[in-house]
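Handoff note, outgoing to incoming analyst
You'll be picking up this chain. Sequence as last confirmed:
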Amino acid sequence: MNSPSRVISFVNAGHFIDHYSMLIFAAAVIIMGPALGMAYSELLPYATPGFVAFGAGSLLTGWLGDRWSRRHMMLIFFVGIGASMISVGLVQTPAQLGAALLAIGIFASIYHPVGTAMIVSYADRLGREMGINGVWGNLGVASSALVTGVLGQYFGWRFAFIVPGVVTILIGIAFAMLVVHEGRKGAKQAAAQARVAKQDMWRVVLSLLIVVIAISTTFNAVTVALPKLFAERLADLTKSPALLGVIAACVYVFGAMTQYTIGRLLDRYSLKTVALPLSFMLAPFLYLAASLNNLPLILVSIGIVMGAFGQVTVNDAMVGKYTSEEWRSRAYAVRYFIGFTAAGASVGLVAWLYEQGGFVTMLHAFAGLCLLAIAAAIILPREIRTPQAA
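Most recent structure output, in case you need it:
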């Protein structure tokens, strides 16, 4: 038997790497352009196929995780994404760059349906481990731009891909040596703690579908728009890009703390008890942010980020609590496919709404969308508590 703490530690590291690897190019492209003799606008589209594969690939990788082996799929993830990062650092032509970034997206698509399902299978306290796992993913997002900038400035943009690629492969080798494949027959299922009546399962599915679309769209829109919103609305406080970046990073810290807190609450209370009050946070804060500036905007933005990050933890826990072991990777695959597809659409939606009426129109629109999160929480049925399966 594998040590649960060891497996979860590797899976948490995978969450960090997954988000980190997907954002290296976004930070490195600024210095890659002059080196490759291409403009920023010419290089950026080469990342698009990788982001499409990141979401679309989860359907296949989740199915393989259930039907074949989650351990083997995670090993492929570590080695594959590490090799892909190294390959980006070795490219010589734009076509090679596009292929290497596509490979990162394909291997990155393994993590969420497979890694999250492994967390559920090995966790003694599901909510707590989900919260901690979310923090690791956020650290990957926050670290990518910083580390890429340092490596790019002092060693060149190629090392910004090669160094994390090498480290990731080494982690994969350690994973292969310390985590063994094991059959699931008779294995502990930590998530078998809550059930709903069979006739109420449609309410769970409908609630999940509604909240994933609403929150994934809003979550991605907020992360895309927040730097520009701060640049426009915090001009009386500072015009320094570096300080604006620090303010945005501090706001996101509250989001990471919220994921951990919501995870702990999910271990003590039913999912509906936690989800319902949380669902009321986003709409009013988004509506208020539309007309605020300076310090009041920062405080309200903290509320927005806390609501959005907390909802992500609830969504993941919902799948973990209500799906059986043999279907769990596929359930997460569908959840992330829908979520990432909606998130991808949000970028164009932000641009269109901003063009129509600036941030006032955009924030009001997403406040209206987040009313759906309240409806989704109300739809959730009551849980039937059962003893933890052995």
